[in-house]
Amino acid sequence: MTLISSPKRKLLLAAGYLVAYVLLAWLCYARPLLAPGITPWHPQAGLTLAFLVVAGPAWCAVTAIAAVVSELVIRGEPGSVLALSASSVWIAVVYGTFATLLRHLLPHPLIRTTADAAKFAGVGGVASLVAAAGYVGTFVATSDVAIADVWRGGARYWFADLNGILMLTPLLLLDGERRRAGWRALRARHLEALAQFALVLGLLWIIFRLPVDEQLRFFYLLFVPVIWIALRWNWSGALTAVLVIQSVLIFAAETDLHTPRFIDLQFLMLTLGVTALLLGAVVAERRRSEVTLRERDATLSSAMRFAVAGELASTLAHELNQPITALVSYLNAAQILAAPRAADERLHTTLQKATNEAIRASEVMHRLRNLYIGGRSRRELVDLHALCEAVAAGLADRLRATDTKLELIADSPLPKIEADATQLEIVLHNLVANAIDATEQSQRLDRRIEIRLGAGTQVFTITIEDTGPGFSAEVAPQLFEPFFTSKSSGMGLGLAISRSLVRARGGEIVAEASTSLGGARFQVTLPFAPPLDEDAS
Amino acid sequence: MTVEPSPAPTVFVVDDDAAIRDALGLLISLKGMRAALFASAADFLAVYQPSWRGCLLSDLKMPQMNGLELQRELQQRGVTLPVVLLTAHGDVATTRAALKNGAVDFLEKPVSDEILVDVLTNAIRIDAARHSEDVERAEAVSLLSRLTPRERDVLDLLHEGLQHRDIAARLKISPRTVEVYKARMMEKLQCRTLADVLRFGKRPGSS
Fold it and tell me: A318, A478, A482, B70: which has the fewest C-beta neighbours closer than 10 Å?
């Protein structure tokens, strides 16, 4: 939903809205009921709600004008000037109010989750009910109407407005980006869309060729394409399909085709509309969370690969630098030893060249190491609690499979930490994954892992404890060394990587015995302020 | 306190890598310096003598006690031996910590022999300067300890810039006696002029 702020554009929008309102009212004027002529479809109600959400409730005066104009254009002389103006103002005020409510209730863009869709349907239901009650009320007050007709008319008006709102408003409020994404998808899968469109039209054609008393039974076949479309195109596609069905019904009404009672059709459309909206929203929500999960997995595993390569390069650089250092010193010594016996000048230059090559080898190693270390950290504000939850979600399958309970206890309020979220996640993931492995090794039945998050005066602390067997005092100093592992599978880089990443952020990680759970306890401390950039060079 | 004749300056090399230890030892001795080799910080601390002159060349990354911890330990023991640390290339954070902690210098591995000699010579010079200051201070303390309380009072009041007559009044003795104390005091401190006397700090440590 795009909220428009420029007054000039709002005026244009209001004019467009006025024209579209009258046009829709004229197009859908079919089978009027009672004196005010209540028609079974009010797409203009959906248009109005969308307009007022975008333009703001102050523009509801335009709605009142639109209502009056369309009444005059379509029905000619009004029955009662008072009733007409009162009902128009009522509708305008009601939709202005509920548009404001929608703006408060729903985020931008309009419908992202199933809860959003349900809220929208609820607001639409109440708004149209209030509008219908007022509208019918004014006519009851100004003319003689039978009480049974009041109920019929009120229900008809209510469903007419509600159908218009459910089908049209969400589509009208789609923001530009999503509309473009929709068109792109449509171009890419146009054959499928065409098949679905043909199926809807085919079903309708068959249904209208049936005798009237058979029609209603077969109308429920329409759920099949609507559900199919909702699964494939989420709610925007499904609502479009429902709109198509609705248009055909209006066409049928206007061409005097034989149709079932309109109140039945209204119910059918209502169920179709709600199904399309909710099912589509579920599909959209689910698809979005799948995409986020996939992206997270991809980022995490690529960062993990990078960290492994960095740790390998770093270890290799250090281990090889030792013999190279000895080599360079030996060669320097050899040059000094050779100097007094300088029978051949070439001996000296050869030793010098050998020294240079050894130094070059060392430099290559450092460049390789810096390639993985230099300037990779990003700085962002990270919610530690949310990050821990994400890590737990990522390991949920393993936790379930090993029947391990994970508890997350956090200080509140816990300020956000300035760090690289992905690197921090790698650290947490490694520690929690290790804890799961550990609890699995132990014979204990109550497998538990506890994550504690705290903020002191200068540092954040993350403590991860488990009910595993813990580690012996002998291995404690080696725990964080690369290639040290207690597992049959695994490279022994997890803790080494974690320590490198924590230290790069200016923190420290220590391992000790867990006092509360009996296994191992890893504590990460991270200073509030990240280190200066040069340290990472 | 008596001052022993100081032994020749030595580079004490502490590195857990045998090849590096050996190579550095060879190179240092070929450059005309004495080298003593230790495989760990603990080995060095076990045999360290306060009379040792020279400097410490320690690797930063070692199992058990690393270079930084050794440096801190020496500081706690009041050892003034200058420390030079061998670091991996680009380990800025640790290097900075070491320098802040009082290391005189650091060397990146692999070490070029010219830089090695420069850094070690400089460290040894720092040690010599620190040592001769220590020696002078020790000498001054021992000379001052030979003064009687009265001679010491005269020295202190001379420091305050008082004339003989004022000193006599302050100490309630005759100006003549002041002269005598002053002469004896100058003789004990081996000074010829008043300026020499004033070079002795005012009460550097009590006698």
Answer: A478
CA geometry: angle A314, A316, A319, nearest 5 deg: 110
Shortest CA gap A346–chain B (Å): 20
Q: Which is higher by pLDDT, B56 or A26?
A: B56
Query: pLDDT confidence of A536, banded at 50, 70, 90?
Result: very low
Give contacts of B 133-152 with A, CB under 8 A: none
Q: Does B109 reach chain A within 8 Å, measured CB to CB?
A: yes
**Tokens 């996640």 label which residue?**
A425
Q: Do the interacting molecules here have an ipTM over 0.85?
A: no
- Side-chain-side CA neighbours of A422 within 13 Å: the count stands at 16
Which residues, in sequence order, are CB contacts of B71 under 8 Å at separation 6+?
A: B58, B83, B85, B98, B101, B102, B103
B10-14 sheet: strands from edge to edge: B34-38, B10-14, B54-59, B83-87, B105-108
Contacts (Cβ under 8 Å, ≥6 apart) of B15: B21, B24, B37, B39, B58, B59, B62, B86
Tokens 């992905």 sit at which residue? Answer: A422
Q: Over the stretch A206-228, which tens digit does the pLDDT of each residue have?
A: 988 888 778 878 888 889 999 99
What are the residues whose beta carbons fall under 8 Å from the beta carbon of A515, sequence distance 6 or more? A521
The answer to whether A458 faces chain B, any CB pair under 8 Å, is no
Residues of B in contact with A369 (CB under 8 A): 90
Q: Which chain B residues have a beta carbon less than 8 Å from that of A337? A: 30
Q: Minimal Cα–Cα distance from A230 to chain B, Å?
A: 57
Question: Which of A201-210, A258-267, A352-361, A367-376 bottoms out in mean pLDDT, i.e. has the lowest?
Answer: A367-376
Say if the Cβ atoms of B17 and A326 lie within 8 Å.
Answer: yes
Give A323's contacts in chain B (Cβ within 8 Å): 19
Per-residue pLDDT tens for B75-99?
A: 899 888 999 999 876 677 778 888 8
CA distance B26 to chain A (A): 7
Q: CA A119 to CA A107: how far, in whole Å?
A: 11
State the count of interchain CB pairs (< 8 A) between A and B. 73
Rounded CA separation A68/A85 (Å):
7
Query: CB–CB of A318 and B17 under 8 A?
Result: no
Q: If you write DSSP's letter for every residue of A168-233 in order, what string do you get? A: HHHHHT--HHHHHHHHHHHHHTHHHHHHHHHHHHHHHHHHHHS-HHHHHHHHGGGHHHHHHHHHHH
Which residue in A has a C-alpha nearest to residue B86's C-alpha? A325
> What is the token pair recorded at A104?
């408060």
